[in-house]
Amino acid sequence: MIMSLIDNAVESGARLKTAATMIGLSARTIIRWRHQDGGQDQRNGPVSVPANKLSAKERKQILDVSNNEQFRDLSPKQIVPHLADQGVYLASESSFYRVLKEHKMLAHRQASKPAVKRQPKEHVATGPCQVWSWDITYLKTPVRGLFFYLYMIVDVWSRKIIAAQIFAEESMDYSSILFAKACLIHGVKPEGLVLHSDNGGPMKGATMLATLHKLGVIPSFSRPSVSNDNPFSESLFRTMKYRPEYPSQSFESIDLAQTWVDEFVFWYNTQHLHSAIRFVTPDDRHFGREEHILANRRKVYEKARHRNPDRWSKNTRNWNPVRLVWLNPEKKNVTAQTYHLKKAA
Question: Residue 185 in contact with residue 129, Cβ under 8 Å?
């Protein structure tokens, strides 16, 4: 049957390698099968039964124990230790799992609802001020256990720091004030803007949510305890705290801390060549200057290739602008063309 399917695919114009890969085989295997009378499976299987194979009686005992009143709500990880406490050993945990799986008994074994893994909603930015990400990080003070709190908002598409302000405490009131102030300063209409954050109190507090609702902002939240769901803010904080000029000692006051953060924001937005956006500055991308910069770089590389073509085995470096930026994408490796086709449909 496999050979017939492969032959039909090849006759229809498919390449042998591609057709073989689709069913989990290599082209060399198909060619060998053709020289072996159609590739009939000539294996005889195992010649002996494993010495440690569970008997039918032992398998029945596993099923009976797993489904009796005492253990029916427990997983094999708990059943096996309980049996050991009673001086009983039937089989290993893996054997319990294997037998239960064969009999389709590995469903949720408790009265409570099973845990449901929820992927955060995907958001796509095609330009500045469409998706913002924000978070709070701690800054050390001279008093041990006491911190200043840096609130920072970053534009997901351009990587520009929109706002960065330090407060003495975490508060949903400060969060809402900072966001409203950022929209006002940058002249952003908040209707339809996506604001992503983690699940902290200042992010999900009633005041903050009321402010977002009033302004028409779409709130987006990470899954609890999953920092990867808010990668833009986490990456930004890491860049900040690993700068050579980041103080090794604590900040003496909020004013001194704010001064240092303001200098960092200026450097990051206007001088830092960001690797994720073709090494242009966030400001250049945010304000539409990246097209000209990248076009000039492309010309430089084309001239270099023309002067020394032997040094280039393939295309020159990719200096095309990054058109789309995904926040928590549902599928990996989604191209811009695929996104626009999906959106048009």
Answer: no
Q: Please determine, for residue 38, whether its predicted confidence score (pLDDT) is greater than 70.
A: no
Sign (positive or negative) of CA dihedral 195, 201, 204, 207? negative
Query: Could you count the other beta carbons within 10 Å of the beta carbon of residue 200?
Result: 15
Is it the case that residue 227 has pLDDT exceeding 70? Answer: no
Of residues 220, 224, 214, the one with CA closest to residue 232: 220
Backbone φ and ψ for 146, nearest 5 degrees, come out as -110, 135
Span 13-17, mean pLDDT?
Answer: 86
Which residues, other chains included, contact 53 with Cβ-Cβ below 8 Å and sequence gap of 6+? none
Q: Which residues pair with 132 in a beta bridge?
A: 155, 195
Beta strand pairing call for 147-155 and 161-167: antiparallel
What's the rounded Cα separation, in Å, for the pair 60 and 93? 15
- The pLDDT value given to residue 341: 45
Local confidence band at 322 (pLDDT 50, 70, 90 cut-offs): very high
Q: How far apart are CA 194 and CA 199, in angstroms?
A: 15
| Partners of residue 147 on adjacent β-strands | 140
CA angle 165, 170, 173 (to 5 degrees): 80
* Cβ burial, residue 102 (10 Å; 0-12/13-18/19+): exposed
Which residue, 184, 163, 193, is CA-closest to 175? Answer: 163
Question: Which amino acid, residue 23?
Answer: I
pTM over 0.70: no
* Stronger pLDDT, 80 or 345, i.e. the higher one: 80
Write out 320-331 in H/E/C secondary structure.
CCCCCEEECCCC
Quote the DSSP letter at residue 274.
Answer: B
Q: Angle at Cα 328 formed by Cα 126 and Cα 238, nearest 5°?
A: 95
Please state, in angstroms and rounded to a whole number, the distance separating the CA atoms of residues 198 and 64: 45
Of these ranges, 217-221, 229-233, 249-253, the one predicted with the greatest mean pLDDT is: 249-253
Token pair, residue 51, equals: 């010495």
The overall longest dimension of the chain from CA atoms, in Å, is 83
